[in-house]
Design brief:
With 92 residues, the protein is mainly α. The protein has a single domain, classed as 30s Ribosomal Protein S18. The protein has 5 helices and no strands. The protein is elongated. 14% of the residues are buried. The mean pLDDT is 85.
Length: 92
Amino acid sequence: MIAQQQQQGEIRYLTPPSVEIKKKKYCRFKKSKIKYVDYKDPVFLKKFLNEQGKILPRRLTGTSLKYQRRVALAVKRARHIALLPYVADLLK
């Protein structure tokens, strides 16, 4: 029976093949018209960190170059005054 289905050119999968649909990335700072990235707001800055406490790259967050530099500077300042950890096991 399987040979008959393959001869007809019909291939069935157990799970449908996944087709990735990419969302359009956007800069949340430009969209929300945020001018200043506050280093004293650790809850907001945690959105730009991964579980280990590393700063997420632009290609993952969609942040523009101008604001990515400001986010990096704000994270570094927040780390310096101990609002954010330099290294963490499970930050989120």
